[in-house]
Design brief:
This protein is α+β, with helices and mostly antiparallel strands. Helix content is 48%, strand content 12%.
Amino acid sequence: MRRQADVTSKIMSAVRSRNTRPEMMLRSGLHRRGLRYTLHDGRFAGHPDLAFPGRRVAVFVDGDFWHGKGFRARGFRSLEAQFAHWRNSEWWLNKIQSNIARDKRQSRQLRRNGWRVVRVSESKILQDLEGSIRLVERALRARD
């Protein structure tokens, strides 16, 4: 039995895109180290999750599913294989591929504007928070 479109829409609208657990963990770790940032700043291309405007460093916390990461960890050979047996598989594959393309465009635009872009996957943060914090710190030090 197919789910009603309005039910699917309600479910999808509940999926967080901001203030996720991995994002909050990274923010907290950076803040504990005395690093200050702006959140979800619409002044910059792609609305980075964290922005350090003075040093022109943009940080994105990418959810594994929505940004096309982690399909191997979920037991698939490829992104295409992940969606092969899903209902509306072509739509889902196109959706995730368009997210990946958007990420690349946003990063490219920020770099063209003189920004350093750091993208950290949710699984990286959950597995190695300290390493993720150091990754951001290295980008910031490179801008000192």
